[in-house]
Amino acid sequence: MKSRSSNPAPAIFAQRRAGTLLHLSSLPSAHGIGDLGPVAHEFAGWCASAGQSVWQMLPVGPVGAGDSPYASTSSFAGEPLFISLELLVEEGLLSRAALRPQRGEAAVSADGPVNWSAARRFKEPRLRAAYQTQRRRTGRVPAELRAFERQNASWLLGWCRFAMSQRGASPDPTYHIWVQWKFQRQWNLLRARCAALNVLLLGDVPIFVPLDSADVQDNPRLFRLDRSGRPEVVTGVPPDCFSTTGQLWGHPHYRWSEHRRTGFAWWTARIAASLARFDALRIDHFVGFVHAYEISGTARTARRGTWRPTPGAELLTAVERACGRLPLVAEDLGAVTPAVTALRERFGLPGMKLVHNAFYGPSSSDLPCLHPLDCVAYPGTHDNDTTLGWWRSLPADARARYASYVGATSPAAARHTLARSMVQATLQSPARTAIVAMQDHLGLDRSARMNVPGKGTNQWRWRMAPDALRGLDATTMRNSVFATARV
Hints:
The protein is α/β, with parallel strands linked by helices and about 475 residues long. Residues about 1-5 have low confidence and may be disordered. About 35% of the residues lie in helices and about 10% in strands. The protein has a single domain (about 10-350, about 430-485), classed as Alpha-Beta Barrel (TIM Barrel), CATH 3.20.20. Strands 9-6-3-2-1-12-11-10 form an eight-stranded parallel beta sheet. It has 17 helices and twelve strands. α4 (about 145-150) packs across α5 (about 155-165).
């Protein structure tokens, strides 16, 4: 087994950096949901001016049940709603007038929470109109689109079959290929902008995929399904601080024998495709690479299940052999065992530390001053409450410990500067990378929370207000970053 010293951190995590966690959907773009257009480019510029050299996002695949990025219906495709209509106007594929609601059509705006279904009703017909304009303009399929189709044939044709099977979907496979091509072209523009600004993109790979996905439809042998195509066992975690009945995710488990037989080809392709978009990736539920919680496919809660071993070392070895040194962050939260830590260290992957977790007891390795170098420090993730919401539910003794740690004279005094002191505590961690959710930069309460684990509705909707960045002093933020030697 390799030691940490023999397998140092990937280059992206080898120096101290500060970053911001903000999903694309949370940008205040004009048509009901954040996208890859002008506002995303402006946000990349703000990151650079505020000393934020990492922009972390949630998964960007087509959202599935509950509009969850972690229930994406493809491990390879991009979410069509992230395509910018403004950029299509710049290409001449839409008129400026097409961006306004037509008679009898509900308006969507840059304000308020994301309404996924309303945004889809607004953007889908305009995407189809842009596609038709492109076809009329050229009279044929562009050569660049054909090249994109050839290069991505291993997943794209299966995605088209899946997309066409959805209710109300276009029956034209070329349309679905065109949508993915436009997504990738716009993505490449944003990534080039970020690269020019020295802002790295950190993505996110869910460890499991849902039953209702192109992945399962196209590769059923890779999943533990019965003869009728239903999962024999499903994913989740046992009862924890988020849920007294556990979290029943419901994804099918992998048939690991088949993955071994193929040399983990699907996993290799999946990670390679994500690394083609992002500079580094967070692997969600990293503990699942050591053991996974199996629940009966007919269970209604996650109360009863069994932890079973998984071949994470074999998988990561195969992916590393194909892709080279892996710039991955291991989300090593939850049921972490020595085996989980050993696997992470074997591949030189930084883990995660949450500052919110540090104050519930009198001694915790989550205290920022105790963080190891090879980790990514956060106040909390997309699954946690905002820092202000966290404080309001914090027991009195935990508030006193936090006040003492940040040098406040009392919990009341700590509350007065809570958002700023939490960001500073995270930046002062020895961890080479420190990332703060945008909601905490803005000092927002729990109404801005992105997700409550185990809750299936009204999640993944928070969106930053259009003028929110005006309330932040980018120069002061940049000075705070440089004061902690995060460059």
